[in-house]
Amino acid sequence: MIGQRRSEPDSEGAARWVLIELGTQRLHLYQANRLLSSYLVSSGRNGVGEQMGSGCTPRGWHVIRARIGANQPLGAVFVGRRPTGEIYSPALANRYPGRDWILTRILWLSGLEQGFNRLGSVDSMRRFIYIHGAPANVPLGLPASKGCIRMGNADVVELFEAVSVRTRVLIER
């Protein structure tokens, strides 16, 4: 499946899908071959890779397994995929300096390529690979995450509303 840039049409016509280009740190939302929107992101600071515990961003075809956080406010803090009731602020960040901030919305990814990004020690879902919101002071446009795809909070809300469970996501260099 790697190198294939389009998902199959769904019952309503051409499917929406997401392309994440790690080289440019951009996420693109497509309807078939038509670009709908493009966003600046931040991927894993340790580069690309599929191994559990690597801190790398996995490549290949994925699917959105779950959409988490509908109707949460901008800056809502998530721990273990559950909203804590907190809203991100510099004061909160000072209180928890080591926290990996997962904010606003979560799109949880599951790999589709057995042995590459699915099952065993390379399973993206079991690695908890997400597309999620990040604090405004987190740099976008360069690899800096722990393996997930970080986005601006307003951008992740817009993407969240445009995709559904089972939307395909291709992550490539």
UniProtKB/TrEMBL annotation:
<dbReference type="Pfam" id="PF03734">
    <property type="entry name" value="YkuD"/>
</dbReference>
<keyword id="KW-0961">Cell wall biogenesis/degradation</keyword>
<keyword id="KW-0133">Cell shape</keyword>
<feature type="active site" description="Proton donor/acceptor">
    <location>
        <position position="132"/>
    </location>
</feature>
<keyword id="KW-0808">Transferase</keyword>
<dbReference type="GO" id="GO:0071972">
    <property type="term" value="F:peptidoglycan L,D-transpeptidase activity"/>
</dbReference>
<dbReference type="InterPro" id="IPR050979">
    <property type="entry name" value="LD-transpeptidase"/>
</dbReference>
<dbReference type="InterPro" id="IPR038063">
    <property type="entry name" value="Transpep_catalytic_dom"/>
</dbReference>
<feature type="domain" description="L,D-TPase catalytic">
    <location>
        <begin position="16"/>
        <end position="172"/>
    </location>
</feature>
<dbReference type="GO" id="GO:0008360">
    <property type="term" value="P:regulation of cell shape"/>
</dbReference>
<comment type="pathway">
    <text>Cell wall biogenesis; peptidoglycan biosynthesis.</text>
</comment>
<keyword id="KW-0328">Glycosyltransferase</keyword>
<keyword id="KW-0378">Hydrolase</keyword>
<dbReference type="InterPro" id="IPR005490">
    <property type="entry name" value="LD_TPept_cat_dom"/>
</dbReference>
<comment type="similarity">
    <text>Belongs to the YkuD family.</text>
</comment>
<protein>
    <recommendedName>
        <fullName>L,D-TPase catalytic domain-containing protein</fullName>
    </recommendedName>
</protein>
<dbReference type="GO" id="GO:0018104">
    <property type="term" value="P:peptidoglycan-protein cross-linking"/>
</dbReference>
<keyword id="KW-0573">Peptidoglycan synthesis</keyword>
<dbReference type="GO" id="GO:0016757">
    <property type="term" value="F:glycosyltransferase activity"/>
</dbReference>
<feature type="active site" description="Nucleophile">
    <location>
        <position position="148"/>
    </location>
</feature>
<dbReference type="GO" id="GO:0005576">
    <property type="term" value="C:extracellular region"/>
</dbReference>
<dbReference type="GO" id="GO:0071555">
    <property type="term" value="P:cell wall organization"/>
</dbReference>
